[in-house]
Amino acid sequence: MAEVVAAAPQRVAARPRLRGTALLGTLPFFAYVTIFLIIPTLVVVIGAFADDNGGATLDNIEALGNQYILDAFGRSIALSAISALAGAVLGAVLAYALATAAPNGLLRRAVTAAAGVLAQFGGVTLAFAFLATIGLSGFVTVFLQDHGIDIYSGGVWLFELPGLTLVYTYFQIPLMVIVFLPALDGLRPQWREAAESLGGTTWHYWTRVAGPLLGPAFLGSALLLFANAFSAYATAAALVSQGNPIVPLQIRSALTSEVVLGQANVGKAMALGMVIVVSVVMGLYTLLQRRTAKWLG
Amino acid sequence: MAGVIARRARKQRALRWAVLIVLGVFFLLPLAAMVEFSTRDPGTWPLLADWPKLSATYPDLADGIVASLLQAALTALLMLLLLVPTAVWVRLRLPRLRRFVEFLCLLPLTIPAIVLVVGLAPVYAWVTYFLGGSSVTLVFAYTVLVLPYAYRAIDAGLSAIDVRTLAEAARSMGAGWATVMGRVVLPNIRSAVLSAAFLTVALVLGEYTIASLLNRTNLQVAIAFLGKSSATMSVAVSLTALVLAFVLLLLLSLFGRASSPASPTASKEPAA
Questions:
Q1: Which of B20, B119, B168 sits opposite A41 (nearest CB)?
Q2: Is B228 helix (H, G, I), strand (E, B) or coil?
Q3: What's the CATH architecture for B44-266?
Q4: What is the ipTM of this complex?
């Protein structure tokens, strides 16, 4: 006890006596975050359980059971899952191709830099890129028509879910490369050599060594891709011309259209539903990421 | 054994090129199509380069471009003013709060922009009441949007230097907190600050959700609006915006690479 007291004076400089004044320094940050992040979050959470007059109600949550909302959630989840799966598989193959290239080579640097840019390439710009490519008068559409192939013989699918899936995959693959490449780099060549010196084949190596090691990383990355697609709004808003097939577009219509009496807060309930889905997915991602770090960190 | 490895290397090389060519076509095709599409009308690109004529022909587009550039610059500024002093201060004086600040900064990752808009609508009713309905006010929302990315960049920069020792050295020689920030800490995390700013600019230039739903304008809103009347022009502007973001992020990745081997020595440099 005496030593502690004796040591105390030297620590005064390191530990300020007035914690209150130290807290003042963070005041601008906390005030800002409260107004523009915490309050909007609370507006959504509380609004989901409030009626038009501010009273508590579960009607909005029950409204989520409406068929059109359930359908929108179903389509959103299907779109996110398929584009995440396609992006994860193709992105993992591309990442593997890069991992076998020279670590500091031009190829790898150029492709990872391009992936960094393309992963951010979403929204309206991407929608227009695909309109110019496979829109009704797009480059590829016209080229194929000149050669007797009509990609829209079965209907114009670009502005519906199949089109959205294709366009989403365009930004999912580069994101997969970015998040999965570090895990592939964590695979040590010695492990493969060890498997071989014990008589294992390439098949054995991939199914018994590399597969189980990369499994959590792959699954985690796929979940991140899912959350990425699930949250996306701008691409769909610019591309889909009719109806509101997915949840973000349903929320838009709840925000912008003349609101039916008693339905004002259904949009907030849908928003809360989105947050819950994304939080669960991101939570699983964090868990898997921790598991990956154990071996491939 | 050597034969096996050589054969595997050959196989891997063949796979590598096959994958790169197939996916390369997938990724380059839309970009090539944009070039082809936007040159169908030969007047498009000259018009885009002629600012006075452009703003006379498409006033909405010109407004959007100006608004976006202003938003990008101001968001980067506000983000740095808010984040750098707080991150440094928390490291120096309130280390226990670090986890909490990190949690708050990463929170927007779990809140999709479309959800944030729902909550921001009432907040912006007040913003409009106090500051008016100008598109520049979107800066407040954008700063929240870029918080996770900017925080990670700045936090990584601060982790690479010994902030405490630097600050104590400066303080013991009589420097005030402003000097510590501006002349000691900031020069040492220059590349982190730059990368946070670049990311911010790239994200703001691509933002559509919040601007369109809060009835304000920016580049993406203008492009989407233009798409209804002049498809060629909107594709040309999209391509320009994309190339701009491409160059910005490419510069960022080059900066990051150039500065990372130098960072251990950078912290040893005399800070002044």
A1: B119
A2: coil
A3: Orthogonal Bundle (1.10)
A4: 0.82
